[in-house]
Amino acid sequence: MGIYEKQVPDVVIKRLPRYYRYLSELLKMDIKRISSGALSQKMNVTASQIRQDFNYFGGFGQQGYGYNVEYLHSTIGEILGVKNGNTAIIIGAGNLGRALANHDSIGKRGFTILAMFDNNPSIIGEEVNSTKIYDVEELESFISENRVDVAIIAIPKNHVQEVATRVINAGVKGILNFAYTEIKTDKKVAIENVHITDSLMTLSYKLNLERTEY
Amino acid sequence: MGIYEKQVPDVVIKRLPRYYRYLSELLKMDIKRISSGALSQKMNVTASQIRQDFNYFGGFGQQGYGYNVEYLHSTIGEILGVKNGNTAIIIGAGNLGRALANHDSIGKRGFTILAMFDNNPSIIGEEVNSTKIYDVEELESFISENRVDVAIIAIPKNHVQEVATRVINAGVKGILNFAYTEIKTDKKVAIENVHITDSLMTLSYKLNLERTEY
DNA sequence: TAGATTGTTAATCGATTAACAATC
DNA sequence: TAGATTGTTAATCGATTAACAATC
Q1: A2, A55, B39, B99: which has the fewest C-beta neighbours closer than 10 Å?
Q2: How far does the CA of A154 sit from the C1' of D1, in Å?
Q3: Quick one: pLDDT band at residue B66, thresholds 50, 70, 90?
Q4: Distance (Å, whole) CA B171 – CA B167
């Protein structure tokens, strides 16, 4: 605990959701236990890496037996904060914002969507999947009256920095940013970017490779 | 070239779109040249890394001068295939598919969206941002009649594997997958996943960190 | 108990950073 | 030419893989 605790490498954290996903599937298939070897084959990683990753958190297995799927799943879920009752707002009620509001996956990861915000008067007051769209002018007052952990930003990039600064100042603890720009802040806020076009360009590079290298 | 060419590490490729983005901004600001040192400060990486990264492709700079922004921008663009005239289809005309069709960023990265596909009869024939929605049954015939490089999959996960197999068999070279599942194939296809919920969970973990560790 | 498989240490590999000679 | 900055080699750091003793 505290700053002296061995910091878990970012690269390990990024792998946890994938473990969580595979364990969910095993659970659904009613598989009770799994060894690092068996899991490594399914996930196409090394058994060593799996054991190393889990051991950053103390090790959840049992020698000679393997891992209890349900226990492992719920423990990784806890590490990722699925049970923390986090809350979120979605800023931007365009197609992307609506896609997110309609997706049940956000709820499944433990997030409750409290509200959406937009600056288009003609849709303010509407509901998307029973989440109300508020005027973006009400951002600060809403955040001050409700505990909002995360702001999901799904608006065009030209307004992103301004809106981000506002929600950060209002006390939000994390931002999930879908816009093609990076948010600058000197406050201690967790920021996670989903740069769709970056993925598209990486894919574009790979297409090229297929053509020219093999 | 060929399989003997020094393979560029994946981690370098993933950084290229970010360079590209920053260089676009410099271009807009009418900045003609930049040194690795100056760029490193802007992007918050080391100058060493920038020079190493660029040198995987032969080095585009000039000693004592730095890098010509326009040249560097266009060269990285070329590496990423922005000028290859790639084509794409979007499978799924729900909110996410529409968000993608409406976003001009896909076009800016050199992709032309040829068509959208959906299985909902009531929207087939509609146009989204002047892209027509076809019946998903026409997937194969469309791909056989048009050169389709990439399929962007934006449908619920239960149909993803089936649709992916179909487009791969029909000859698509790459897939951008937005569904919360991984596509299996033994064909040589480039697959890039955008797992939004994984990002959300990583963010969730970081929220936790803020609270308990500092 | 014997067999299996973890937790963990040690070895390897690869990526990042530092340093500096080459050169514009 | 002198100064600046790259391209590139060498040093460091960190992450992955291998190995194996501990133990269920």
Answers
A1: A2
A2: 56
A3: very high
A4: 6
